[in-house]
Structures are given as structure tokens and as C-alpha cells.
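Two proteins follow. First one:
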Amino acid sequence: MMSNIGILYPGEMGISIAAAAIHNGHKVYWASQGRSDKTRARAEKYNLTEVDSLFQFCKTCEMIISICPPHAAEEVAKSVIEAGFQRLYLDANAISPQHTIKLGQMLETNGIQFVDGGIIGGPAWTPKETRLYLSGEHSETIAACFSDGPLETKIIAAEIGKASALKMCYAAYTKGTTALLAAVLATAESFGVHAELSQQWDVDDKGFTEQVNQRVSRVTAKAWRFEGEMEEIASTFREAGLPDGFHRAAAEIYHRMENFKGSDEAPPLNEILNALLT
């Protein structure tokens, strides 16, 4: 059965989710007001249907999928409430479980059905590389929209917050350790032992230095977004009764790389280290 699905917003991840929904026979909408030329180009390339305003978007869509930077998740949810939406809303953002629970309560109080989602993996273009974890009573409705194609879905609980908790724990390691490696490289550079550290790494594990360099370079364009995610992870750790300092420091590391936002090519390593040390 075809559904009218809205994507807020069709960025690099969101457009792949939109394409997966279209692949399954659904009609996907986007609200063009205030969006960039890059967003428009993505939406047109993958045949999303444009509506001018958020009000019209909310009137048309049976379900809305929110995929935005962590710091904007609450603002997006509030805008949907203000536009009068009262159907099904999936928050698939990288936010803490307690933040998700708060959003869910706010939306449900305003007559909106809520599902918690956590995306693990990159944009969903290749099978078995991206999984959407879901929790909440209405998870099956979301999962049914992606029964075929590259995006895998997995319902893990009826309880809101579980999918977000899994996402936070997973990213705490993957993105947290990338920030740690960036800080290690910058510290070695500052003390003049970068070359010696690289040599020792390759003695221990041949090719490891190049792996580290590529890993750090790849995150630069999204570092501005990862800063907020690290703050959400820190809050998750604190809620669990664990120290939150590691991921607050990781947020600062990503903050220092924010000027690389939107770069089409990964910057040279020396530019990254200079940004970290400035």
C-alpha cells in the first residue's frame, strides 16, 4: 500500500532514505521553503515531490521522517507540531535516549504517533551497509515502508529510547575513537614526534598510519554535525551514571574542524592538524 512520506530533510542521509521509500512504491515529499540549492538538486535528482511550505507538507504527508543535525531535532519536531501535523513521526536523529523520550512525549501530547529510530551506517545506497533500528509501538508501520531495497530495518523494542540508545553506544565507539585519533595526531605534531609515532604504528600494524590518516580526513566535512552527536553521547553516558568527559572532549575536537564543513574533497592532513592546534 502506497503512503505519502515526508522527509525533513533530504541531505546526504535523508535523500538515500527517501530513495529507498520511493523504491518501495511510496511517494516522498520535501518542503522547499528555505532550503539550499544543493538540497533542491538532490530532491529533483531522486524524484521527490516538492511542496512550498511546511504547512502544506504536513497536510499532505501520512508520516514524516526527521533526519537532521542533532541540535535541530527538537526545533524540527516543534515546527511540525505548529504546522498542525497529527499522524506518524519518526525521529531518526543521533540524539540521546532521554532527549528522544522528551521529543516523543511532546509530539504525542499534540496528537502525533511517535517512533524512535537510530541509523547505523552511511547513506543507504548499498545493501547490507545501512540499518535503521526502530523502537516504539508504531515501528512496524515504518518498517513496512522499507521491506525491499538497500535499507534494512530492525525493530528492537516497543519502548521509546531503545533505538536511540543503541545508536549512541555504537557511535560512541566509531566516531568517538576517530576524534581520539585526530587528537593523538595533533598532539604528536605539537611535540614534534608525528613521524616517529607513524613509524611505530606501522611496526605494530603495517599500514595502520595510512588507515588513521584516511579515517581522520574523511570525517572533516561532517565534523560540524558530529560535534552535536558527541554532546548527545556524553549526555547518554551521564544518564547511565558514567563519566561524560571523553565525549565532551570529542565534541571539542570536532568543533575545531567545523570550518571544513561541506568540503567536496578531504583536506590535507597538515591542514586538519593546524585547525586542531590553532
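Second one, unrelated to the first:
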Amino acid sequence: MSVLHLDSNNFEETIKSTDKPVLVDFWAEWCAPCRMFAPIFEKAAEKLDSAAIFAKVNVDESEALALKYSVMSIPTVIFFKNGAEVARRTGALSLGEIAEFLK
């Protein structure tokens, strides 16, 4: 499955309308660590798609979501289950760290 691109129009519905956990990467185009992390997140979405839904939120386009979830640094990955935040990590992660995050 490919990575979903979420914004304030589809974010809540996406994280609440699935039984699968949702892993959301909050990022921005100007962020060098975000650009470095992007291919790793994409690869995780391919390899771990049976375990979770992978999505991205551009903080410049969806400032309200970044504020609502208190995203202060990017990249920040937030793990949602049943529509609620259960964990978060700030900074670029490895594929192994993402897999561990989902356990």
C-alpha cells in the first residue's frame, strides 16, 4: 500500500475509521531530516503494510493538525490506534525502528 497524504479534511476520518494502527509522519519540504527519512518511511509502508496504515501530514499545509498534536520538531512520527495517539517519536527512524515501533 502506498503512503496516504492527510490534511485537516481527511485526518480524523482516516485514523478513526480503521481497525489497523495508523503511523503518521509529520514533515515539511524544507526539512532536510524529513527528506532523508521519506524513502525509509516509503519502504516501511511497502514492507509493513499488513501491520499498519502509513500516512504523511505536511505541517506547512496543515498547521492546525501540527498544533493540535503538539508537533514541535519534525520529522515526528505519531502512532494512532483506534483513533487515539499511543506513542510518538521525533527524528528520522530506521526501518528496524519503525518495525519495533509497531510492536
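SUMMARY FIELD: DSSP finds four helices and five strands in the chain. Helices lie at 11-16, 32-47, 63-68, 95-101.
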